[in-house]
Amino acid sequence: MISLLLTALNLINTAVFLYCILSFVIPGSRLMETIRPYADMLLDPFRKLIYRFFPSVENLGMDFSPILLYLAIRLISGILRIFA
Questions:
Q1: How far is CA 72 from CA 5, 24, 53, 56, 65, in A?
Q2: What global pTM score does this model have?
Q3: What angle do CA 30, 74, 48 make, to 5 degrees?
Q4: How far apart are CA 79 and CA 10, in angstroms?
């Protein structure tokens, strides 16, 4: 059961990484438009958290929410590995 959760977290991590890369390489592609709703669903809570505590970051043009999501996934994965 824990290995299944770890695999799901790794897939989420990979999908968000691909989303970040694609957003720079081919931002208007059909693939990007397919991935965007799912990635935004995961990244929006982190965006709101960042903008609440650091409102000036919103004007930088950089999205730091993937970094926070990555750190959260690493933290959850580490905790799950302890109990595995």
A1: 14, 23, 17, 23, 10
A2: 0.86
A3: 60
A4: 14
Question: What is the C-alpha to C-alpha distance for residues 82 and 42, in angstroms, rounded to an integer?
Answer: 24
pLDDT greater than 90 at residue 41: yes
8 A C-beta contact, residue 43 and residue 20: no
Instruction: Provide the pLDDT confidence category of residue 60 given band limits of 50, 70 and 90.
Output: confident
Give CA–CA dist 67/17, Å, rounded: 10
User: Cα–Cα distance between 27 and 30 in angstroms, integer?
Assistant: 9
What does residue 8 show for φ and ψ, rounded to 5 degrees? -65, -40
Render pLDDT for 6-26 as a digit per residue (tens, 0 to 9). Answer: 999 999 999 999 999 998 899
